[in-house]
Design a protein that fits this description.
The protein is mainly alpha-helical and 207 residues long. The protein has helices spanning 6-27, 35-41, 50-65, 81-110, 123-152, 165-176, 181-200.
């Protein structure tokens, strides 16, 4: 993912700072080198606060950059080179999908579903928030394109890797069009643009 919007770089910087302040004691005795190790640090929060979401974004973006561990330590049982290749492709697809979901979650924190007339006194703040939401959604588009690319690299699965059956199901849904984050994100962006125009049309007489 090159030339990411400023928001993505800010998210990464914030996550690094968060880890430096809060997670170093927990991680200092555990040297993280491999993609699977970063993936295992990803965890769902009951409340999706922005800092929690950015922390998970950091872990998964690092997982995409890191080398894979030896097949002995894979997240599925690997018995031959062909299974190893299938596993790595599904891993890349799955992690990109998770990043789509995380960026959509982050964007929802800044998005405004409706431009209520009584929000007119905070018109500029709402427009800035919508700008952040749009940037975040556009980062999600890039990860969706990556996820689709990895899914289509496997026109058929030669092996059933039971431990990551859910990833295989995700691939099937992408290939059949049942899972289409592109359509979902486009709907978010279309609604966001309509709300932006409503805020831009507000003035001192709106409220």
């Amino acid at each position: 993912m090159s030339n990411k919007p400023l928001l993505a770089r800010l998210c990464l910087a914030a996550a690094v700072a968060l880890l430096a302040l809060a997670a170093v004691p927990r991680l200092s005795a555990y040297r993280i080198l491999y993609a699977e190790q970063y993936y295992r640090l990803y965890h769902l929060h009951f409340y999706q606060y922005p800092d929690d979401t950015m922390e998970n974004i950091y872990y998964l973006e690092q997982a995409l950059k890191a080398d894979f561990a030896n097949p002995l330590y894979a997240l599925a049982r690997i018995e031959n080179r062909e299974q190893w290749a299938q596993y790595r492709t599904l891993f890349k697809m799955h992690v990109n999908l998770k990043l789509v979901e995380l960026y959509l979650t982050l964007g929802s924190k800044y998005d405004k579903q409706v431009a209520y007339f009584y929000n007119a006194p905070w018109r500029d703040q709402n427009l800035e928030s919508l700008k952040l939401a749009e940037q975040t959604y556009r980062v999600a588009v890039g990860y969706w394109d990556e996820a689709r690319g990895w899914a289509f690299r496997l026109p058929r699965l030669r092996f059933n890797l039971e431990e990551i059956q859910a990833w295989e199901d995700q691939r099937f849904r992408i290939l059949t069009g049942d899972l289409d984050y592109g359509r979902i994100i486009a709907a978010h962006l279309g609604r966001l643009e309509r709300v932006r125009r409503e805020f831009e049309g507000m003035d001192e007489n709106t409220y």
